[in-house]
Amino acid sequence: MRRPKQPSLPEVHASVAVQRSSTFWRRLFTFTGPAFLVSVGYMDPGNWATDLAAGSRYGYRLLWVILLSNLLAIHLQTLAVRLGLVTRRDLAQACRDHYPLPIVWMLWIICEVAIAACDLAEVLGAAIALRLLFGIPLLWGVIITAFDVLLLLALQSYGVRKIEAVIVSMVATIGACFAVEMFLSRPEVGPIFRGLAPGWLHGGQLYIAIGIIGATVMPHNLYLHSALVQSRAVERTQLGLREGARFNFFDSVIALNGAFLVNAAILVLAAATFYRSGHHEVASLEDAHSLLEPLLGTVLAPIVFAVALLASGQSSTITGTLAGQIVVEGFVALRMRPWLRRLLTRLIAIVPAVLVILWAGDHGADALLIFSQVILSLQLPFAVVPLVHFTNDRRKMGVFVTPLWGRILAWIVAGLIIALNVKLVAETLWTGFAEGNLVVLWVMLPATIVLTPLIAWMTVEPLWRSWRERRRMYVPTPELPALETTLPRHYQRIALALEATPRDAGILAGVIPLVRAAGADLILIHVVESATARYVGEIVDDEEARHDADYLDRVAARLRAAGLSCSTHMGAGDPSEEIARIAEQEHADLIVAGTHGHRWLGDLFHGSTVSDLRHTTTIPVLTLRTLPPAAAAQTAPATGT
Fold first, then answer.
1. 639: confidence class by pLDDT, cuts 50, 70, 90
2. pLDDT tens-digit series, residues 573-605
3. What is the CATH classification number for the domain harbouring 498?
4. What is residue 156's DSSP assignment?
5. What one-character DSSP code corresponds to residue 158?
6. How many structural domains are present in the chain?
7. By C-alpha distance, which of 485, 554, 572 is closest to 520?
8. Does some domain include residue 240?
9. What is the distance between the alpha carbons of residues 253 and 73, in angstroms, rounded to a whole number?
């Protein structure tokens, strides 16, 4: 049976009321929250290492890179907000609606690996903070962090605002801690402002800059933000959606600029403390913690640093678990109890961390943090490219489609991020080959070989889809053959799925004689697969839907002229689900569908409707090999209708 579309994060979907009659500031407060949950991903422990390395090696000179990465993040998060608000689908659900099922499963696996890698860095950061503060072994710190997050996520049952309040308090704690660090380190104001001016990057500066941008723009934040904005019960009018987009933009600017100040403060602290004292190779969290007390002359500095690290790791793991829930529900529509779903997403991150610590000891944590950032680099294009495509598609976004200048900027941002991440991955592969690293040889190299053609196809897929839809506008009505054969008499209502392509002539050549022999009623079905149809369903009224309806009526008219009884039914969305729904609704005894004639990569890129249809309905399915028009004509006898 057809499954209804589930909202994103159903426990909190549209749970926050929006009062349009209230004041500006009260409405802004109502919308404030989702971006703060997202912002913790931009100042998680994975970012700390790159910021510390930049400040200790190059002083204040790379501050402008942090500012640039923040501007890129604001633009991408704004696109994610608009996608969630307008389409009422998060990025994972939008991918599931748009791409063939094999592609969806591949994207889900890639995304799960990336979220596990990101969550891994956050869990390790919180565990390191627990060891710095209380001397707890790293392994026990990982376990404590895992169950601690599950307790905090229990607040979700009391409403999303409770989770947002917890996260905002942790972000405030991080900000307060670094305000204290700024006071203790007393940085120079002049060099800070000079560091905000862009400059040329070369050598080690370029490598650190790539790390900063790659670690700042987190792919799971795009899935998370597009879901969280749907927690507000925005009025589904053009005015209401515009207001929601505007207030969410304010929320993003405030929250992400707060994340920028934290990242900048980490770099400034490293520059004012380590670079100024000649310690130019400080990159690990524990090295930074151990040097703060002797360099600043107070025991308060390392304590405040560890508290900020704990708040950063703990808040990031909360949002990482929420992102994992969104990805599971969005890509594969996996339904399970909320506590079990959170436990599953938590274990995906905890198990690798525990195994590495048991295998490599505490010293393996730093290497694991670095490797997790490389995995994120591999996944980032698979979130950015669909997001840019979807928000540039007028059929999905309507009047809220990204304007031309925004599209150009979005592709510049996507191109820059992809280019920098490709460089990072290429350098990692080169270094791994030189050192004989087995992880690179057996994991990263095969993954790169598989993922490169996939992202290339995803980039050009809209052009291919547009060409295919334009070509379908000129499909002629197929001629009807006259063949004599037999079909069991108990098949009195036969549902025939047509593609509205020239190959329909082949399926008609095979089914018309069977219908005549059985004296059955024919139910013509066609499913509109356009992007608009997948979002609005049966009420779709775009150019493709009108063309296909006219095509179906012309085929029915010719069949009736030939003395056959038939009716027409249009569906919209997923072909297998719609064909099954209409056939069951019309009490069909048999479904007849054509095969595409492709296998393996063909099914990967075009989908396999018949295979899915067999698992969607209990009605028997007869599969006929569709033939090109010329071949179908040869099967027809000289006389016939």
1. very low
2. 778 888 998 999 999 989 998 765 444 433 433
3. 3.40.50.620
4. G
5. G
6. 2
7. 485
8. yes
9. 10
Structure tokens of 440? 């690179």
Helix (H/G/I), strand (E/B), else coil: 624: strand
Q: In angstroms, rounded to a whole number, what is the distance separating the alpha carbons of residues 270 and 58?
A: 10
17 strand-pairing partners: 233
Judge if 479 and 359 occupy the same domain: no
CA angle 545, 547, 549 (to 5 degrees): 65
- Distance from C-alpha of 413 to C-alpha of 69, rounded to nearest angstrom: 10
- Separation of alpha carbons 444 and 438, rounded Å: 9
Torsion of CA 284, 285, 287, 289, to 10 degrees: 170
* pLDDT 10s digits, 3-28: 446 777 777 777 777 777 778 888 88
- Provide the 10 A C-beta neighbour count for residue 483: 16
Tokens 């909190």 correspond to what residue?
A: 12
Contact 395, 433 (CB under 8 A): no
Domain ranges, residue 528:
475-635
Helix (H) or strand (E) run with residue 622 in it:
strand 621-625
Per DSSP (E only), the strands in 8-156 are 16-17
| Burial degree of 325 (CB within 10 A; 0-12, 13-18, 19+) | buried
Give SS3 for 107: helix
Kindly report the backbone phi and psi dihedral angles of residue 465, in degrees, each rounded to the nearest multiple of 5, phi listed first.
-65, -40
Phi and psi, residue 192, nearest 5°: -65, -45
Residues 6+ apart with CB under 8 A from 288: 52, 270, 274, 282, 305
Q: What is the pLDDT of residues 453-512, one digit of tens each?
A: 888 888 888 888 877 777 766 777 777 665 555 555 668 899 999 888 887 887 888 888
**313 touches 48 (CB < 8 A):** no
